[in-house]
Recover the amino acids of this structure.
């Protein structure tokens, strides 16, 4: 029982991180129908910047209560600039090109970002400075640390903020309108280019938050971390129904829970035949199964066939 | 005239490894071999992506299946040393079977969902290869399988140098001729497929699936056929890779590899066979050519400022972006596609854009 609870807690925390990254994918996809392959790398940039700024500040004797927000702010600024730049240079010129062309530039951009990060920060792992003293609490036989709680709270607040932005503000309404029909939105007086740029700004800021949280979750940051993370987050977005914001939340949480439950129980389920390193298989297998029976994702609207 | 051009081309292709060796060294003959291998793989993926318009991001899984099938049955791993020429078609067949296995439940998905499912499948295969060393050691895990039997022709192992008619042929040279022959076969098969009844059915599905169905095309079976056909070529390439390299490990079959092959197809010109060949050759050569950026830095600014190994992939990414920005239709698109994408006809552009890989949209 406590194993189950423990895996559920771990899964929810991991899932909240996936959800945060998945939101970035889903927002861009909703508006541009583009798989923004570079998004995982933006998260990586956020993680690297926040870790190195945090390390520098704490080494200089800045108190943690000030250093953490400053590191986050630095990560947000760098990620937003990178995200907007990527949109401007690699995606905007191709908006009317064949659909696979921006996919290739996205891949190109992600290779570029990864290698820039490698040249800039080197190949070694950056470790997250131990700024918060870890305390472990006991919850019904399972353990949870204060850092984990903090991660979950920050992720939840960020996602709540995003939901408010999309559903309650003028910009959010413009975003939803653009996602539904770019041309008609333009006719209604929405500046589509600005909305798309704003989407990238918001998505990149989310990525920066996610980067910081993920670095503190794993305790390390590495130039190579973005790719597999992006892959899983994108899977989460598809699982929930891509282009759908609540779907990305649900998909992210579900993927996290499935992964940690899978890792915890796969040995028992298969009589010890398959070990916990098969956890990634679990995630992808569930993905394939869900999509086979619900081809548009869990919360995705049923797209009526054209006929 | 056409025959003369053909003759010149044939002589050039035959002389190519010797010219390359004389000009650039033995390593480049090996790179040439890999270019041939990638041409075969890219043409296989082109059937799926270019002809039928299905975005497949897990193509490397079939390549892996072919490679491991050969590696397991022709290496000290199980002490089996079955003959190459029997295993190669069997490996292709197994890959084809995997293609059908994946395609059957998933081919009704819309474009991007299909992409992510194929991607997941590719990862699953790789994770299995990585972990199937316990409890029964099948794939030898992350270490991979070593000492795989080379290709044998009439009892002669292709990796050993041989003298034919007074010409000394090294391993890479001999493989070049083998791969050239197979590549020509694959090109021939791809061209024949494109202009066959099935090829036209693929094009119809790519352009408009509903209309294709109304014309009496059994869309599910025809799409499945494209998938299976592409997978077969992937399996073929995998067997060749294993025998040529003598070593396979899960490292060679990552998602990046799938993406690389997709880039070859798109960069060259989707659905256009000469374009795809060009894309494959260019993208195989480019990272190797970029190894020379170290000496170049030395010459330009007098010192090596950035480690060339680091800079290499960076420049590769920049090149991908630039080519797509300036030629979104690919370097050498088919004449028809180039016309359809001409900006003075927005309606056709729109239609083309929407049907490119997502026929149901």
């Amino acid at each position: 029982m406590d194993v189950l609870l423990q895996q559920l807690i771990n899964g929810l925390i991991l899932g909240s991180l996936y959800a945060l990254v998945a939101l970035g994918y889903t927002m861009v996809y909703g508006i541009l129908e583009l798989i923004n392959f570079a998004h995982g790398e933006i998260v990586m940039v956020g993680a690297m910047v926040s870790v190195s700024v945090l390390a520098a500040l704490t080494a200089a004797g800045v108190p943690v209560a000030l250093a953490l927000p400053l590191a986050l702010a630095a990560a947000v600024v760098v990620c937003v600039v990178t995200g907007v730049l990527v949109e401007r240079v690699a995606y905007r010129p191709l908006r009317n090109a064949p659909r696979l062309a921006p996919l290739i530039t996205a891949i190109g951009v992600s290779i570029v970002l990864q290698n820039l990060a490698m040249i800039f920060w080197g190949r070694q792992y950056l470790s997250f400075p131990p700024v918060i003293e870890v305390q472990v609490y006991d919850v019904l036989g399972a353990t949870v640390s204060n850092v984990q709680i903090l991660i979950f709270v920050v992720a939840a607040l960020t996602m709540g903020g995003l939901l408010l932005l999309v559903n309650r503000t003028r910009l959010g309404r413009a975003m939803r309108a653009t996602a539904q029909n770019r041309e008609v939105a333009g006719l209604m007086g929405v500046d589509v280019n600005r909305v798309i740029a704003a989407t990238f700004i918001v998505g990149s800021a989310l990525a920066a938050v996610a980067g910081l949280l993920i670095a503190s979750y794993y305790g390390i940051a590495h130039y190579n971390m973005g790719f597999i993370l992006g892959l899983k987050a994108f899977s989460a977005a598809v699982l929930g129904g891509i282009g759908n914001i609540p779907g990305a939340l649900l998909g992210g949480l579900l993927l996290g829970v499935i992964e940690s439950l899978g890792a915890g129980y796969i040995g028992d389920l298969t009589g010890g035949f398959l070990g916990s390193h098969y956890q990634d298989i679990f995630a992808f297998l569930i993905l394939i199964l869900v999509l086979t029976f619900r081809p548009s994702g869990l919360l995705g609207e049923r797209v009526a066939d054209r006929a | 005239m056409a025959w003369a051009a053909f003759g010149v081309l044939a002589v050039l292709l035959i002389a190519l490894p010797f010219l390359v060796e004389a000009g650039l060294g033995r390593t480049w003959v090996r790179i040439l071999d890999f270019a041939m291998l990638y041409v075969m793989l890219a043409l296989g993926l082109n059937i799926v992506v270019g002809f039928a318009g299905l975005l497949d991001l897990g193509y490397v899984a079939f390549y892996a299946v072919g490679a491991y099938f050969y590696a397991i049955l022709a290496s000290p791993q199980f002490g089996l040393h079955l003959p190459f020429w029997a295993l190669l078609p069997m490996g292709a067949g197994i890959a084809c079977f995997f293609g059908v296995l994946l395609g059957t439940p998933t081919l009704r998905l819309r474009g991007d969902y299909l992409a992510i499912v194929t991607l997941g499948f590719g990862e699953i295969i790789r994770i299995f290869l990585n972990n199937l060393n316990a409890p029964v050691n099948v794939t030898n895990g992350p270490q991979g399988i070593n000492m795989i039997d080379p290709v044998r022709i009439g009892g002669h192992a292709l990796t050993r140098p041989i003298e034919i008619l007074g010409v000394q042929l090294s391993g890479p040279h001999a493989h070049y001729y083998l791969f050239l022959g197979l590549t020509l076969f694959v090109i021939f098969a791809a061209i024949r497929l494109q202009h066959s009844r099935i090829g036209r059915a693929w094009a119809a599905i790519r352009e408009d699936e509903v209309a294709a169905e109304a014309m009496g095309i059994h869309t599910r079976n025809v799409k499945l056929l494209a998938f299976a056909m592409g997978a077969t070529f992937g399996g073929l390439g995998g067997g060749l890779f294993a025998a040529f390299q003598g070593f396979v490990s899960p490292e060679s079959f990552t998602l990046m590899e799938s993406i690389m092959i997709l880039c070859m197809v798109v960069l060259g010109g989707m659905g256009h066979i000469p374009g795809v060949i060009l894309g494959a050759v260019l993208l195989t050569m480019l990272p190797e050519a970029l190894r020379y950026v170290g000496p170049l830095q030395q010459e330009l600014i007098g010192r090596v400022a950035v480690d060339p190994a680091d800079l290499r992939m960076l420049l590769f990414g920049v090149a991908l972006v630039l080519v797509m920005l300036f030629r979104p239709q690919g370097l050498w698109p088919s004449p028809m596609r180039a016309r359809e994408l001409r900006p003075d006809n927005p309606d056709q552009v729109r239609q083309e854009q929407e049907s490119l890989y997502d026929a149901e949209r």
Summary: The longest strand of chain A covers residues 136-139. Chain A has a mean pLDDT of 87. Chain A has one domain: 2-127+139-293. The CA atoms of residues 177 and 185 of chain A lie 6 Å apart.
